[in-house]
User: Fold this.
Amino acid sequence: MTIFAALLRDGLAQRDYRVVRPACPEPACTAISMAPDDLVAAARRDGARYLVYGGIRKMSTLVQWGEVQLFDVEREQLVMRHAVTFRGDTDTAFRRAADFVSETVKDAMAGR
Assistant:
């Protein structure tokens, strides 16, 4: 599902957001591999205002589902938690879902 994350980063970067990936030792900075406080600290250390995280799970070749969260690093507050589902496991399906999620995240950041 790394293609989804890459598409989401690209989608946000195309919308005038500077996307940074926190520099972490092994394992990489993820909500799965790190304690929440450590993940937020890594984002803050690398100058992020917001932290976007989540994941996609494949139920079948037909259905994908996941969740994306937006955390305001400065205010230490969860801004958005959004479930997402989409059909198919093609590049087109991932691209459409990533476009939708990047618009949802952008709207949540604009409302702050």
Remarks:
- The chain has one domain: 2-110.
